[in-house]
Amino acid sequence: MHTTSGTSLSVRPVAPAALAPVPPSARAITHPAALTGTPADFPPGLESVAPADEDAGWLYDALLGPHSADVVGYLRLARACGGPVLDLGSGAGRLAVPLARQGFSVEAVDRDAACLERLRTWGARIGPQVSRLLVTTRAELAELRLRRTYRLALLAGTMVSAVAPDARPGLLREIAAHLEPGGVLALDYTAHRMRDLAREPRRAYAFEVPRFDGIEEWAAARQVFDLDGMSEHVTYHCVRTGKLSTERTVRSTRKWIVEPDRLDAELRAAGLRVERSRRHRLDERTESVLLVCRADR
């Protein structure tokens, strides 16, 4: 993953009041009323909010950072499938650029122009042998219209939860229609135990945002699940401390809770057959699910 290099300040971060009980450099998962819980595997993501500025980009990188191991898995899958590769919800290129460095032609799709510019800058910084393999397309996933075919399509980083349930079947049909015969769609999502969400619909996380630009940053995330609407709303309260000032910002995102049976039916209806699945337990309430789907034609 590309980040701007630099030197961190030794200034202590000014944490939000809600973060006061959390020791520096610790990340905790707790009840909202008192941040005194057990260590978290990862904070909730920004799947449906693309960073609109460089400062927000650091938070985006921090949220995806715990999933960085998936880059190796997706590279391995690309070697097995071949290219070209379609990277949907590419962000700043955490998958697209490593894939291009390995010689794959990649079309990176994201709705945020700043993300795509950062991706292109990263590719150009490596060299023309990488940048010439990268094509960027600015588009909303729910309105995606593709122009070519691919051997491999990726909906990584739980991006499928950023697509509203009523728009998801159309997106899957569009992807399937543009896979080459025998082509593959790989996607991952977070599976929740519904009874646990009903019992605890509100959660809170505190974590430090790794930065390399002379700023220290803390974030508190408040996660609220709505089972009636099968959605979740996450609000990030961030405090950034630099040499001369402290800045407080608030960002929020809405995502959808993925129902495995419904997603499986939508994949089949789109002509995609689940060929392989893998589940990884994140905590006592949630699992990460990876699906590798083959175009059934």
Give the SSE order as H and E letters.
EEHHEHEHHEEHEHEEEEHEE
Oligomer: single chain
Structural class: alpha/beta
Q: C-alpha Rg, in Å?
A: 19 Å
Q: N-to-C terminal Cα separation, in Å?
A: 35 Å
Range of strand content: 35-45%
Strands ordered across the widest β-sheet: 5-4-3-6-7-13-12
Low-confidence stretches: 1-42
Judging from the principal axes of the Cα atoms, what is the shape? Answer: globular
Biggest pleated sheet: 7 strands, mixed
Percent of residues in helices: 10-25%
Q: What does the average pLDDT come to?
A: 80
Summed up, the helix count is 8
Work out the number of β strands: 13
Describe the protein:
By secondary structure, this protein is an alpha/beta fold. It is 25% helix and 35% strand. It is built from eight helices and 13 strands. The radius of gyration is 19 Å and the shape is globular. Residues 1-42 have low confidence and may be disordered.
In short:
By secondary structure, this protein is α/β, with parallel strands linked by helices. The protein has helices at residues 54-64, 70-81, 96-101, 113-126, 128-131, 168-177, 194-199, 260-269; strands at 28-31, 34-39, 85-88, 106-110, 134-138, 150-155, 179-192, 202-209, 216-226, 231-241, 246-256, 272-281, 286-295.
Any descriptors?
25% helix, alpha/beta, single chain, 6-stranded antiparallel β-sheet, 297 residues
Strand-helix topology:
Blueprint: E1 28-31, E2 34-39, H1 54-64, H2 70-81, E3 85-88, H3 96-101, E4 106-110, H4 113-126, H5 128-131, E5 134-138, E6 150-155, H6 168-177, E7 179-192, H7 194-199, E8 202-209, E9 216-226, E10 231-241, E11 246-256, H8 260-269, E12 272-281, E13 286-295
Parallel strand pairs: 3-4, 3-6, 4-5, 6-7
Antiparallel strand pairs: 1-2, 1-8, 7-13, 8-9, 9-10, 10-11, 12-13
